[in-house]
Amino acid sequence: MKFERELAWPCHDCKVRGSGFCNTLIDGASPRLRTEQDDVTQFFLHVEKDEVIRHDSGKIPSGPLVLCQGWAYSYCQLPDGRRQILSVVIPGDPLSAFALLGAHPGYAFRAATDAKLCQFTRDDIWKEILAAPSAYDALGRFCSAEMDDAVSASINLARPNPVARVAGFVHRIVSRLQSRKIMVDTGVYQFPLTHAVIADATGLSSEDVDDAIVALRNDGVFDLSNGKLTVLNRAAFERNAVRPVL
After folding, report:
1. Can you give the pLDDT at residue 10?
2. I need a labelling partner for 235 at 20 to 30 A (CA). Which of 34, 119, 120, 206 fits?
3. Residue 171 CB-density burial (10 A; 0-12 exposed, 13-18 middle, 19+ buried)
């Protein structure tokens, strides 16, 4: 992991700045995105694929991290040595919205691809939240979204059918990509998660995931290959959504 305070400020051309957490923090209710560096302390971290993402108090002050580029996931190691993936982090997400409140997650994060993260100091975040009600509201939305995703993940794990479980997992992520307008083309999304990662997120074996993806492609729902996901039939795809019944 490489830590640096970049001289060339990279945020002005960030593809998700207008829809991710940073927009609510440093752009607020501004009618257009700022193009100059804001009066907040930022550190940028470059992480290689499969590297564990952690703070290094000897190099930078501890503070919440926001994913700028690449994908990551949170996970915990089970007593029998297996890995359970808890959530997937896409560009624009804080690694944990609750970490913005000072809470330390009881799980680890790992980069699913080469990734770049931005770290703010907690003091700067609270300065913005106290100064702008919109930032406070946004923080609440991110915390709520994180809880909703955890609930949906739990419900999805209860699905007995491996095909439905994989489809539900993929649908949850694609819905978030759509909300950030992260797509290659209409109905086509970057989806760099390996079958092993999907297996650890759905509680299935890699073989079950392989078979499920083949079945979903043969049924004309979606195709997942070469790091891209193509929705073949939107109506069929939407039927796999995980929707809690209240």
Report:
1. 59
2. 206
3. buried
For tokens 């419900």, what's the residue?
A: 155
| CA atoms of 11 and 35, how far apart (whole Å) | 8
Tell me the C-alpha distance between 210 and 196, whole Å. Answer: 9
Confidence grade of residue 31 (pLDDT, cut at 50, 70, 90): very low
Q: How many CB atoms lie within 10 A of CB 107?
A: 15
* Exposed e or buried b per residue across 75-101, where buried means at least 16 C-beta atoms within 10 angstroms of its C-beta: beeeeeeebebbbbbbbbbbbbbbbbe
pLDDT digits (tens, 9 = 90+) for 77-124: 889 888 999 999 999 888 887 776 766 667 889 999 999 888 877 777
Task: Name the one residue in this structure whose structure tokens are 């073949």.
Answer: 232
Task: Give 3-state DSSP helix, strand, coil % of the chain, rounded to 5.
Answer: 40, 20, 40
**Residue 132 pairs with which residues in a beta bridge?**
none
* Rounded (5°) CA angle 131-142-233: 140
Overall average pLDDT of the 16-24 stretch: 67
Sheet architecture: strand order including 108-111? 52-53, 108-111, 72-77, 83-89
pLDDT value at residue 38: 55
**Domains of the chain, first to last:** 2-150 (2.60.120.10), 159-238 (1.10.10.10)
Q: pLDDT tens for residues 41-63?
A: 677 888 899 999 865 544 445 66
Q: Measured between alpha carbons, how far is 14 from 149 in angstroms, rounded to an integer?
A: 25
